[in-house]
From TrEMBL:
Source organism per UniProt: Pseudahrensia aquimaris
GO molecular function terms listed in the Swiss-Prot or TrEMBL record: phosphogluconate dehydratase activity
Protein name: Phosphogluconate dehydratase
Annotated pathway: Carbohydrate metabolism; Entner-Doudoroff pathway
Dihydroxy-acid/6-phosphogluconate dehydratase C-terminal domain location: 406-599
Amino acid sequence: MTVKAIEDVTKRLVERSKPTREIYLDRVRAAADAGPHRSSLTCGNLAHGFAACAPTDKERLKGDVVPNIAIVTSYNDMLSAHAPFARFPDLIKQAASEAGAVAQVAGGVPAMCDGVTQGQRGMELSLFSRDVIAMATAIALSHNMFDAAMYLGVCDKIVPGLLIGALTFGHLPAVFVPAGPMPSGLPNNEKVRIRQLYAEGKVGREELLEAESASYHSPGTCTFYGTANSNQMLMEFMGLHLPGSSFINPDTPLRDRLTAEATRQALSITAGGNAFTPVGEMIDEKSIVNAIIGLHATGGSTNHVLHLVAIAKAAGISLTLEDMSDLADCTPLMARVYPNGMADVNHFHAAGGLPYLIGELLRGGHLHEDVSTINGRGLSRMAQEPKLEGDGVKFTPASEVPGNDKIVAKLDAPFAKDGGLKMVSGNLGRAVIKISAVKKEHHVVRAPVRVFDTQNGIREAFEAGELDQDMIAVCRFQGPRANGMPELHKLTPPLGVLQDRGYKVALITDGRMSGASGKVPAAIHLSPEAVDGGSIAKLRDGDMVLLDAVNGILEAEVDAADWAARAPVTLDLADNEYGMGTEIFAAFRRSVSASDAGASVL
C-alpha cells in the first residue's frame, strides 16, 4: 500500500490535471488511430523517406508491414557524455534488421554542456536549449514514417527536452537509451579541495586544470550526481529505460548489448505487437510522482524542479512546487552520492544503485507500483539488474540488501527523514532550496545581505576581501526573462571558503545553481524574478534577511511600511541582448514562463 501522504498528493494532482490531461489523451488516442501508417504517404513522400536506405530496408518499408524506429540523437564528439552515441545508431540498426525491422536516424538535437559554459556567456542559452531540443525532436518525428522512437540523450537539458518532444508525439512508444558514466577519476573531495584553494589564490590555474582534467577524463557522463545523472535516474523511475541500464560504462560489452536489447524492446511495444505502449498514455500522474520520489530519495538535481513541471505540462499534467515540496517531506533520503556524499555514480551503482532503491522504496510503499513501463505493467519490473548472458542480457531481481550502507540505505535507516528539497516563501517571493548536502547548522541563516546584479560582482567582492562576515549574498537579474537563467555554480567555491572560515553564509537568487550545488544553503529560482519587479529587486545592502529551510521561510526583516514604499530597482539589460547568440533568443526571453511554471516557452 502506498504511503498516505504520497497518495494524497497524487489524488490532488490527478484532480487538478483532469481538464488538461483529458484533452491531451484525446489527442494522443486520435493520433494513434490515424497512424503512423506509411501507406497514407504519397509515393513521392515515401520515396523521399527511404531514398537513403539499403535495398532490404526499402523493400521492408514499401509494404508498411514492419515497424520503423526513429532514432533521435544528441551525439556530438566534443562532449564526453554524448561522444559514445557515435556508435549507437549502427547498433540499433543492426538489432532492428536482425528482428526484420528498420531503424533510421530521424534527426539530431543540440547538446550543450553546462560544465563548458559555466560562468560564461554561453550559459545564457543553456536553459532555453531544452525547449529548442523539444522543438528539434518534433521536427525529427514530423515525417510520420515511424512506429516508435528511441532517444539518445544524457545531460542537463537534453533528456528533459527529448521527453517533452516525445510526449508531444505521445501516440508513439518511446525508449530512452543512456550512454553511461565515465570511469571514476580524481576523488570528489580532492577536486573540491583544489577548487577552494584556487578560489583563495593558494594554487594556480595549472594545478586547477590538472585536477579538473583528472576528474573529467574520458568519454561518458561526469560521475558526480548532478542534473545529467539525475536525468538517468528519472528515466528509470519513470520506466523509460531498461532496468539498471543508467550507470553502465560506455564502450563495454554490457553497454552495447543493452542498446541492442533496448531496440528489441522498442519493437515489441509498437502498435504492430501485442503490448502497444504509447508514451503519452504510459507517462501519467503516478509516473510523475514516482519521478519526484526518485529525485528526493537520491538527493537529485534542483534543475528538475523546473524540468519536471515542464515535462508534466507536456503530458497535460499540472504539477506545482507545493506538490514537490510535500513529496519531499514524506520521502526519506536513501542515497549519499556527491555532492551529498563522497561516492560517485559508479560507486553508487556498485552498491545496488537504482534497481535496489526502486525495490526498497516499493517495499515500503513509497512508489506507485501500478504504472506502465517499456518493460510491461508494474514498476517492480525496474527493480532488476542486467547481466551478460551469452550473446544477450539477462535481468535478475535486485538485491534487497545494500551493497554498501554508507552509499545506499534501508528504509528503516535512511540518511535523512526527508528528501532535502524545500520550498521557502515570504515577502521576497518563493524559491526552492536543496539541503541534502547542507549541514544542519546551516539550515537556518539570518544575516544582512550584500546585493549584486551579476555573479562576477560576488566573485570580485570576495577576491577583494569584502565578504568576510556573516552575510547572505543576493544575486539578482539572473532569471529566465533577464538573461535566460544561467547556473551560478562558479559562486560555490568562494561562498564555501567563507563558510569554512566560520561565517554564516547563504545565497538568494532568481537564477539557478548547478545540479551539483552543495554545502552552502542557496534559495534559488526565486519568483517573481527581479526583471518582473519581484521583491528581490527591493533589497538593499544591509537589509536583514531570514532564510529558514526548516520552516520554509524567506523573509526580508524590513519595516512593513518601509518595505511597501520601496520601488523595485531596474537594470539596463541591453548587454544581455546580443553576443554568443543571445540575440536569436530575444523572443524566448519575452515569452518565457516564470521559473515556478517551468521557465518554458512551450
